[in-house]
Recover the amino acids of this structure.
């Protein structure tokens, strides 16, 4: 954990912490009756733990770690389908390294690679395109994974493949969207959230208006935030100030990077290549309406689901239940802390992850494990 | 994969494909300018961009680039991204 004095601007950090404490006192927030603030983005979860912000802020703040880590919400069935495609003869399966260790029912992509499948970790879908160009006799599949930050990159890649007539390139599309799971969470009668820290880099693509419903329909404040520690403290203070003043608005703390209307070229590419699925399965959260994207029929030639007849394009039913005793869903919705999961540290550790929240440093369980968790955790 | 990394655009490599060379913490990497190509490409040379999985997603100023890089280093994400770039290179060559 960092100490305030190590922050880039320790005086500002101290002032913000004092401001947060004052606002908490005004609200009457205490350890027993805290203000619940959900940071949606896994990058923010990681930053909060890394900089120890959960311990530095007034004890009347409780951070709830939201569903914003695409690796963490990837269902087992999708991992299985990746492996099914990767094991087809002639296929080169390309993926971001982050996804390699997510467990499916037949193990992870890492294990499939060890069994002999040609699975390659790439940095960018551009690498996958290049592999396709260099290997015309092979089928190159890119595992399209992620929220609106990575969605434009696969859209641009598919457009490029179409322009070049690269018939041996396709994308296994697992792109998901941020606003829909938040709507689902807010619609849950057990929901106790008081405000949100909105994702920075997702918002750079989609702008701030997709969050309007959070303020307008559900009366909750949301502040789009950068991921430096000062950004996060500032954003927490902005959420609290809205609570104190009885306001619910979408505010943009990260305006230096996030334009109100997002990135037009990226939005145009997404709209050209993708359409919404009626629903999509999230690990731990179940099916959520309109929360996933699929490739439009005009680009079907580049859709790995269509090409290989797997996933939502397969004939049979595909839901795979979570392993016994996993509490990933309850952790992701803030109902319990990772340490309360029966598998935490026993069946499930970063070395042998059972749930995906243990796989990535953006997952709440791995962050707890690595950084010792928040106040009162059994760490 | 969800956090971008700042890089400085050093040269246009393929104007038709909107590709450019970027310097990311001392590593040279070809990136796509498609998301920021709303102006003449040559004007982008010398500027800093927030690069996500090989795409320049936003033009940022130098001060912002420096601060973002520092936060990424603290998080260990800067090294992770550079490692991922190196892996990507190996994947091209089929030597992974
Ligand atoms: S400890 Fe493992 S099984 Fe339990 S909630 Fe976390 S990731 Fe899921």
């Amino acid at each position: 954990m960092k100490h305030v004095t190590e922050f880039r601007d320790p005086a500002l950090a101290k002032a913000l912490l004092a401001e947060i404490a004052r606002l908490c006192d005004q609200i009457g927030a205490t350890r027993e009756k805290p203000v619940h603030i959900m940071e949606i983005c896994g990058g923010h979860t990681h930053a909060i733990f890394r900089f120890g912000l959960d311990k530095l802020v007034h004890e009347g703040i409780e951070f709830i770690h939201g569903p914003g880590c695409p690796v963490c919400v990837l269902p087992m069935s999708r991992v299985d389908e990746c492996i099914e495609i990767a094991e087809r003869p002639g296929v080169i399966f390309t993926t971001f390294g982050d996804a390699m260790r997510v467990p499916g029912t037949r193990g992870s992509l890492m294990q499939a690679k060890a069994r002999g499948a040609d699975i390659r970790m790439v940095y960018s879908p551009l690498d996958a395109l290049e592999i396709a160009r260099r290997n015309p006799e092979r089928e190159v599949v890119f595992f399209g994974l992620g929220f609106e930050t990575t969605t434009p990159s696969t859209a641009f890649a598919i457009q490029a493949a179409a322009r070049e007539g690269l018939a041996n390139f396709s994308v296994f599309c697992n792109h998901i969207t941020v606003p829909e799971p938040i709507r689902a969470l807010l619609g849950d009668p057990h929901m106790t959230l008081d405000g949100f820290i909105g994702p920075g880099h997702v918002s750079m693509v989609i702008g701030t208006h997709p969050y309007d419903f959070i303020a307008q329909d559900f009366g909750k404040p949301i502040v789009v935030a950068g991921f430096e520690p000062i950004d996060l403290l500032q954003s927490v203070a902005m959420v609290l100030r809205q609570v104190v003043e009885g306001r619910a608005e979408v505010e943009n703390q990260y305006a230096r990077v996030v334009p109100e209307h997002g990135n037009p070229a990226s939005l145009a590419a997404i709209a050209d290549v993708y359409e919404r699925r009626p629903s999509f399965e999230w690990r731990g959260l179940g099916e959520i309406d309109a929360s996933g994207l699929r490739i439009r029929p005009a680009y079907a030639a580049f859709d790995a689901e269509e090409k290989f007849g797997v996933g939502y394009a397969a004939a049979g039913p595909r839901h795979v239940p979570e392993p016994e005793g996993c509490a990933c869903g309850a952790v992701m919705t803030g109902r319990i802390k990772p340490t309360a999961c029966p598998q935490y540290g026993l069946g499930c550790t970063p070395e042998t992850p059972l749930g995906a929240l243990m796989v990535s440093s953006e997952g709440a369980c791995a962050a707890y494990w690595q950084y010792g968790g928040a106040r009162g955790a059994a760490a | 994969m969800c956090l971008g990394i700042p890089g400085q655009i050093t040269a246009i490599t393929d104007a038709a494909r909107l590709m450019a060379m970027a310097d990311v913490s001392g590593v040279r990497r070809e990136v796509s300018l498609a998301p920021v190509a709303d102006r003449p490409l040559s004007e982008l040379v010398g500027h800093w961009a927030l690069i996500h999985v090989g795409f320049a997603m936003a033009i940022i100023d130098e001060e912002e680039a420096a601060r973002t890089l520092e936060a990424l280093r603290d998080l260990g994400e800067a090294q992770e991204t550079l490692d991922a770039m190196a892996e990507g290179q190996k994947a091209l060559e089929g030597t992974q």
